[in-house]
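>> received
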Amino acid sequence: MGWTVETDAVANCPTCGDDLGERETSDGPRPHCAACDLTIYRNPVPMARATVVDGDELLVVRLGVGEDAGEWALPGGRIEHGEPPRAGAARELEEETGLAVAPDDLQLVGDGFLEFDATTMVSFNYAAPADAASGTVAAASDAAAARFVSRAELREIDAPFRASGRDQLLAALDALGDG
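>> returned
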């Protein structure tokens, strides 16, 4: 049996609390609890992001918290236990922007990878056409701002768009927008 954690700084077993030793695995040494026979792995945490495409514009948020605070990105966050990635993306989109879309209206535009000091994440990135969305754009939850940006702005905006990348966003505009 294995247990996944988000950090390398694990000293005690998450099941019984005993001190951890090490066990050699095919991937190298891993933290291990001899009392529980539990091996600890540091795997990426799944997250989902989503945008809405309206003509030649797409929706982005300015992150309000975390290590990327102040950066522009797709609305998104961690996938909840038992939640399919599309459903997580739709939930996060509504939580951060006020726009609701049905998970089935989201199209996968790509994936990405984020690495922070203590957490590694893998992202599933989606887009939906504006006619599939309802609500009014208003930044909420952990988004400091939410707005639509044009293709030209997207090319010029000073933002790394970590986890999605500018190319995925331009591809979403090509697939779902006016051109």
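>> The CA atoms of residues 33 and 176 lie 50 Å apart.
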